[in-house]
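About this split. The held-out portion is used to measure sequence recovery: a designer receives only the structure tokens and must propose an amino acid at every position. Recovery is the fraction of positions where the proposal matches the reference. Here is one held-out target exactly as it appears in the evaluation file.
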């Protein structure tokens, strides 16, 4: 009997904004390392899980294109993109991608769009298709700080989330996909380690492979 292969594409970002590291890429690589060793919780719950990674440029014009090329190349069954949200103190499970670019600082190519669409004429917003409430519960039970977030901002991370969700709809690929922001895991006051964030991503993957609807319980926040 052959085991079905379930491919997860995990992306992180290059450094930006004056830092010489981006912990999102460190986390993606750590999850992929554990996957190669068959150490993931996801692999204990589901056979045949393999993880590939891509490091995205922090550039409005290229990030989404590199992501779409990786999807075409890898044909994943799930896509989780990771990014850094410096100054936050919890993992942020992003619920929504906005069709809006408004950059507080120039991207790594020097572009600084203001009030431009990600995809002209497309929907205003698209929702993550990961099982976020189930994942939030499970990650919190593991002891890590985690929140649902209703704004991924309007910089390159939001751009990637919106592009990802739009692309999967446009190409009729019904696979779970979404975005997780991590705090600055290398800061002195980091609320968790790269290893712990990798465990949280593993749990997010495990919960998002469950085919049942997401948990139904109120979990909204004021902002
Ligand atoms: N964080 C930025 C872009 C790249 C990253 O890691 C953001 O939150 O938009």
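Reference sequence for scoring:
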């Amino acid at each position: 009997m052959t085991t079905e292969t379930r491919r997860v594409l995990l992306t992180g970002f290059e450094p930006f904004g004056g830092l010489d590291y981006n912990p999102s890429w460190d986390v993606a690589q750590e999850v992929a390392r554990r996957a190669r060793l068959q150490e993931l919780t996801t692999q204990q719950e589901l056979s045949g899980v393999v993880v590939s990674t891509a490091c995205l440029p922090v550039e409005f014009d290229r990030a989404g294109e590199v992501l779409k090329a990786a999807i075409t190349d890898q044909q994943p069954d799930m896509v989780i993109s990771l990014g850094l949200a410096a100054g936050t103190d919890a993992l942020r499970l992003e619920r929504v991608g906005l069709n809006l670019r408004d950059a507080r600082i120039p991207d790594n190519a020097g572009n600084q769009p203001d009030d431009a669409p990600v995809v002209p004429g497309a929907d205003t917003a698209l929702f993550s298709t990961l099982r976020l409430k189930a994942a939030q519960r499970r990650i919190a039970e593991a002891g890590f700080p985690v929140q649902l977030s209703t704004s991924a901002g309007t910089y390159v991370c939001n751009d990637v989330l919106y592009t990802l969700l739009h692309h999967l709809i446009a190409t009729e690929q019904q696979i779970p996909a979404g975005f997780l922001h991590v705090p600055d895991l290398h800061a002195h006051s980091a609320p968790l380690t790269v290893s712990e964030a990798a465990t949280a991503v593993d749990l997010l993957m495990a919960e998002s492979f469950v085919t049942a609807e997401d948990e139904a319980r109120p979990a909204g926040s004021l902002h």
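Annotator remark: Residues 56 and 62 are 8 Å apart (CA to CA).
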